[in-house]
């Protein structure tokens, strides 16, 4: 079974994670698709993978819950015994300023984006050590570049995710595991809540982007594949901005 490439994409019931899961399946990976609250969304991801001729398994996962993460990794151990690619995509946060946030709201982004990535890597590590061309991909964000008061906890949790990426990119290559981050600019997904439907907002994002358009999920999946499929297996510790350059402004 070692010849079967295996990946786990956290948060693949919708949005960016869904697009990455489908793309990896098309590239021959068996994909563990995970949902947290949106089982129907996860089912749709699995159906699209099947339609594309790929193979997957739908699993419930709460990345902020140690037992949930360890149980899923135990299942991967039982079914395949190794993991080639872990994509840390899952995130949840509340967009508020410090004045408007409760302590629990502040902690939400850390529990999901930061602790979720830490837990997923911790429990995936024994499996990744046994995987060929093993990769950890962090779906980070450009939010750390110009931390905004309106998304304070998300921006600071993202900064910590980037530090974790740097630390692990130094330590994990000893086990044959590369660690890279993909940094999308604003991407039109459900993550934006009501703002996803705000055409004017997305027009403004496009007009102010040096490339005159916004990031798409296809841009992000191509960046992920570029990092994983590096023919020299040397790309490690990179922060690949998929923003059209908007993060520089
Ligand atoms: N959209 C953007 O503009 C943008 C820009 C830069 C970076 N990013 C990053 O890209 C990633 C994906 O964002 P997106 O826009 O695709 O968001 P999205 O459409 O809201 O999807 C978020 C995914 O995370 C899952 N999730 C949330 N909490 C979870 C938990 N505790 N345990 C496991 N899964 C959980 C959700 O599952 P359920 O729906 O099943 O609950 C969903 O599958 C995030 O890390 C985000 O920070 C997004």
From TrEMBL:
Alphabetical list of InterPro entries matching this protein: NAD(P)-bd_dom_sf, SDR_fam
Keyword entries, A-Z: Oxidoreductase
Top-level taxon of origin: Bacteria
Coiled coil: none
GO molecular function annotation: oxidoreductase activity
Pfam family, one: adh_short_C2
SUPFAM superfamilies from the UniProt entry: NAD(P)-binding Rossmann-fold domains
Family: Belongs to the short-chain dehydrogenases/reductases (SDR) family.
PANTHER family in the cross-refs: OXIDOREDUCTASE, SHORT-CHAIN DEHYDROGENASE/REDUCTASE FAMILY (AFU_ORTHOLOGUE AFUA_5G02870), SHORT-CHAIN DEHYDROGENASE_REDUCTASE FAMILY PROTEIN
The name this protein goes by in its record: Short-chain dehydrogenase
Organism from which the protein derives: Candidatus Beckwithbacteria bacterium CG23_combo_of_CG06-09_8_20_14_all_47_9
């Amino acid at each position: 079974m070692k010849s079967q490439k295996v990946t786990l994409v956290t948060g693949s019931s919708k949005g960016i994670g869904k697009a990455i899961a489908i793309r990896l399946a098309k590239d021959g990976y068996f994909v563990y698709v995970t949902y947290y609250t949106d089982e129907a969304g996860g089912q749709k991801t699995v159906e699209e993978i099947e339609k594309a001729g790929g193979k997957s398994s739908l699993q419930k996962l709460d990345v902020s819950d140690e037992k949930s993460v360890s149980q899923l990794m135990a299942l991967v151990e039982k079914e395949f015994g190794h993991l080639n690619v872990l994509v840390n995509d899952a995130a949840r946060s509340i967009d508020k300023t410090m004045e408007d946030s409760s302590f629990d709201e502040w902690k939400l982004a850390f529990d999901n984006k930061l602790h979720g990535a830490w837990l997923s890597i911790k429990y995936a590590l024994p499996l990744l050590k046994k995987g060929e061309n093993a990769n950890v991909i962090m779906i980070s964000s450009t939010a750390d570049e110009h931390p905004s008061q309106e998304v304070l906890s998300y921006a600071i949790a993202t900064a910590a995710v980037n530090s974790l990426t740097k630390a692990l990119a130094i330590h994990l290559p000893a086990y044959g595991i590369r660690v890279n981050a993909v940094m999308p600019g604003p991407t039109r997904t459900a993550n934006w809540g009501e703002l996803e439907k705000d055409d004017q907002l997305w027009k403004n994002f496009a007009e102010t982007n040096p490339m005159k358009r916004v990031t798409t999920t296809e841009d992000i999946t191509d960046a992920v594949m570029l990092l994983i499929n590096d023919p020299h297996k040397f790309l490690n510790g990179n922060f690949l901005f998929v923003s059209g350059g908007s993060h520089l402004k």
